[in-house]
Amino acid sequence: SGVLHVSSRYDGVVYRVRDDGRTEPFVSELGVACGLAFAPDGSLFVGDRSGTVHHVSADGLRTAVFATLPASVAAYHLAMGPDDRLYVTGPTLATHDAVYCFEASGRQEVLDRSFGRPQGLGFDAHGVLHVVEALAGVSAVYRCPAGGTRRAVVSGPSLVGVAFLPGGDLV
Fold this sequence. Notes:
Number of helices: 0
Shape: globular
Order of helices and strands: EEEEEEEEEEEEEEE
Largest sheet: 4 strands, antiparallel
Strand order of the largest sheet: 4-5-6-7
Number of strands: 15
């Protein structure tokens, strides 16, 4: 709808930020809210790093637990895929962490369990998933084609998030 939404891990609130800079709570009581992704119907998924993915109605009035995952040491990262499925990462203290994929029904699939610390994720203009791995000070953005082999496309210190601009540039 053209309105910026920002999660606050400090108070468990998702805020709306208007064009004039005013902020207002959209939904609250979301634990350690840190990751956001909108579904095609306008509803919102919010990652609570203590182990819950919340599903919030488009009007912000109803909240339900969508999924429960291992608690994250940092944050949950969420992205809605071109296939209308929700993709989630959440680094833990395990030696390897998963990239999860959820159907609208809540059915969960583990896409990859070999990342050391998967963090930000996003899809390019061709619908290919990209995941940031940040482990022990070494980080990279990996291109992860469905059914293919992942490969690093960008590396550098302190990478966490990833996004694509409308023209296709990687940020």
